[in-house]
């Protein structure tokens, strides 16, 4: 057992050693690295990449994109399957919907029907002639088969997916930023 006097002296020495070491200077952090990967050399016209979601449930987030602007072009809504090696590039593209006019600015991912598979919501901007459809594409086959359901025909510049009333079902929010119809809208998910 250490005598009380020696123990106190030892504490003082340790404190002095701590003080003599001085402040620890933070070194400059290394720069982050962002290696470039080419995913697709020929994507849909005017690709609008906005969201990711694991559409085929393999544990890797996939990229969903749609063609936006200019009006009157035709292309498709598609997703890229994430490869096992994210740095490999040239991800495989799968079609969700074609053709669509190049006014599909709104995209969101959510499990709208609660079956455990992520679905995709999409909407057309106000530039589209009526009907400006707001759609939910139900994922019925590992991201390779889709069942479309139209939930509105008043368009939306953007879509946000969230469970706003806490009932466990994901609702959708949208609004147009131009044209004659510009309310903020909630499409509440009432299930089947
Ligand atoms: Ca995936
Ligand atoms: Ca689903
Ligand atoms: Ca809800």
Describe this structure in words.
There is one protein chain. The protein is mainly beta and 192 residues long. It has a four-stranded antiparallel sheet with strand order 1-2-3-4, with no helix packed on it. Strands 5-6-7-8 form a four-stranded antiparallel sheet, with no helix packed on it. The site of one calcium ion (CA) has 7 residues, from loops.
Structural class: mainly beta
Major sheet, described briefly?
A: 4 strands, antiparallel
Low-confidence stretches: none
Beta-strand fraction estimate: 35-45%
Task: Tell me, rounded to a whole number, the average pLDDT.
Answer: 85
Describe what is shown at a glance.
This protein has 192 residues and is mainly β. It has one helix and eleven strands, in the order H-E-E-E-E-E-E-E-E-E-E-E.
Q: What brief labels describe this structure?
A:
single chain; 192 residues; mainly beta; 4-stranded antiparallel sheet; 1 helix; 9% helix; globular; binds calcium ion
Helices and strands in order:
Elements: H1 4-20, E1 47-53, E2 62-67, E3 74-81, E4 92-101, E5 106-110, E6 119-123, E7 134-139, E8 146-152, E9 158-162, E10 171-175, E11 184-187
Antiparallel strand pairs: 1-2, 2-3, 3-4, 5-6, 6-7, 7-8, 9-10, 10-11
Bound molecules: calcium ion (CA) (3 copies).
């Amino acid at each position: 057992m250490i005598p009380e006097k020696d123990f106190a002296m030892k504490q003082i020495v340790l404190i002095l050693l701590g003080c003599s070491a001085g402040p620890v200077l933070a070194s400059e952090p290394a720069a982050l690295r962002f290696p470039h990967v080419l995913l697709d050399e020929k994507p849909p016209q005017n690709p609008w990449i906005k969201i990711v979601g694991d559409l085929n449930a393999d544990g890797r987030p996939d990229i969903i994109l749609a063609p936006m602007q200019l009006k009157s072009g035709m292309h498709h809504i598609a997703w890229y399957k994430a490869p096992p090696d994210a740095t490999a590039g040239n991800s495989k593209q799968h079609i969700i919907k074609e053709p669509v006019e190049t006014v599909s600015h709104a995209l969101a991912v959510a499990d709208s029907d609660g079956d455990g598979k992520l679905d995709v919501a999409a909407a057309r901007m106000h530039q589209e002639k009526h009907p400006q459809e707001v759609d939910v594409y139900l994922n019925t086959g590992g991201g390779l088969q889709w069942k479309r359901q139209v939930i509105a025909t008043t368009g939306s510049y953007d879509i946000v997916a969230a469970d706003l009333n806490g009932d466990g079902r994901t609702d959708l929010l949208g609004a147009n930023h131009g044209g004659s119809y510009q309310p903020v809208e909630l499409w509440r998910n009432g299930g089947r």
